[in-house]
Amino acid sequence: MRTEKEKMLAGELYDPRDAQLQRERRRARLLTKAFNDSSDDQGSERKRLLLELFGTMGKGTLIEPPFYCDYGGNITLGERVFFNFNCVILDVAQVTIGNHVLFGPGVQVYTATHPLDAEQRRGGLEAAKPITIGDDVWIGGGAILCPGVTIGARSVIGAGSVVTKDIPEDVFAGGNPCRVIRSLESGESH
User: Fold this and answer.
1) Where are the domains positioned within the chain?
2) Residue 104 per-residue DSSP state
């Protein structure tokens, strides 16, 4: 019989009240609280806490507190990733972040989802869909990435956007729901 964690990671309906999952979320909350309570002059302590939270992270990654996540261990960070203040990742499923990715303040990344059927929701079951963010992506402040989306390499997501569908490579996309506004040219600025 599969554990609730195995079901969760496979994208199946699972029970988040499972004791193992509760312990893992509590561990992540304690680590993020210690990270968020640290001061700017505690760089090595912040790095230690983040390594414990994620297990590994790419060289040159910088996360500004406060930062919040469900588990931490389901987040893969490339090199030179930057999170501005107040970002949230609900990493119930895998979140894969490429190299040189920038997150504006208040970006929210949601892999968690719930059944559309009210009876199943009442039973407390939930599910998740992974999110993938390609290399050199910039996600503007306040954007929300919904479960299961992929953001293609070198794309830019406008501030305040709600990404409900995949975004291809090399585009500027924005709005609610987020849609491609135009293609980006190599070397383009502003």
Assistant:
1) 4-183
2) -
0.90 exceeded by pTM? yes
The 10s digit of each residue's pLDDT in 112-145 is 999 998 988 899 999 999 999 999 999 999 999 9
Active site residues: 114
The string of DSSP letters for 18-68 reads -HHHHHHHHHHHHHHHHHHH--TT-HHHHHHHHHHHHS---TT-EEPSPEE
Cα first-last separation, the chain: 53
Architecture in CATH of 4-183: 3 Solenoid (2.160)
Q: State how far the Cα of 156 lies from the Cα of 166, in Å rounded to an integer.
A: 13
Spatial distance between the Cα atoms of 90 and 77, rounded to a whole number of angstroms: 14
d(CA 161, CA 176): 5
CB 5 within 8 A of CB 20: yes
Give phi and psi for 35, each to the nearest 5.
-65, -50
How far is it, in rounded angstroms, from Cα 171 to Cα 24?
37
